């Protein structure tokens, strides 16, 4: 519908996840009228991300060096590993500032429907890391959905003979939410995991 | 939250219209794991669009040459000019394949709230184009909202002494819509503009 490069840009933008045809058009026109320096910077950072970004050799988080910032940080507690599905989950846990251990990114979750089995995840690499005896607790922080729960169940069985503490983050009511609007499963879990308060 | 270039990319993507922080992160991870050739192509097209794309000297549609594809096409009917707000409106009208005339892109609509007056739109350039006597009809296809209607009213008054036919696309019920769900103004316009049917 548009001429040459403008249509090319709309086509390329439309291939990005979460960007529909209207969104691609909107972004293209924004870029057309924006400062050339801004567009050049975006183009440069796209090239650089493919050149420089890679995955941490140890935990498979995104990284700019052989080891990611967390693995390379000597102040992190090396006795705990938090197992997550994707690098974005590392960022989510880091934002809480509650966890000072290390991570292990599985690269997905078990999902027979999508043809993803345990052999497609970085489970062997996790076992390798646990073999040095430094780790004492593994927190399985996969998503609280069917695939994530299946992955957590698989991992906890797989790891149970290693003599480690295996934990899973608590399920319950989201903070700031309404009890009335919680789904039955979440509310059920919240009751199951209730804690004594006060004195 | 992420390292170096990955965070840079998320920041840059997050500046695009309609892309929130979660969307920027999603796109960044998609690009991280996608074929380097695809990312290079996106980077190249971004650079090219700023180098090659410009605005048509006559109608101010986006173009790759001095004149856009529509203005340069000898088969277009030069007696009609369709006035629109933005280049994306040209694309929308072109998709209908109903209009074979030329366009004029105003570059916005009158909006006192945003400090946009008639002098900020390409009205003088439109007058210049109408002065050669070749044009006999001007279709004012600004958006059917407050700003677009104000612009249409302004233009129709401004042009009324030129002896041209001044028209506006019909307002009415969208095809495929439900009468029940039409807003009062649209339904009112649809009744006002009703047409005789059959014989």
TrEMBL record, chains A, B:
One of its GO terms (biological process) is DNA repair. Keywords: DNA damage, DNA recombination, DNA repair, Metal-binding, Zinc, Zinc-finger. The keyword Zinc applies. It comes from the Bacteria. A zinc finger (C4-type) spans 56-71. This is Recombination protein RecR. May play a role in DNA repair. It seems to be involved in an RecBC-independent recombinational process of DNA repair. It may act with RecF and RecO. The gene is recR. Residues 79-174 form the Toprim domain. The keyword Nucleotide-binding does not apply.
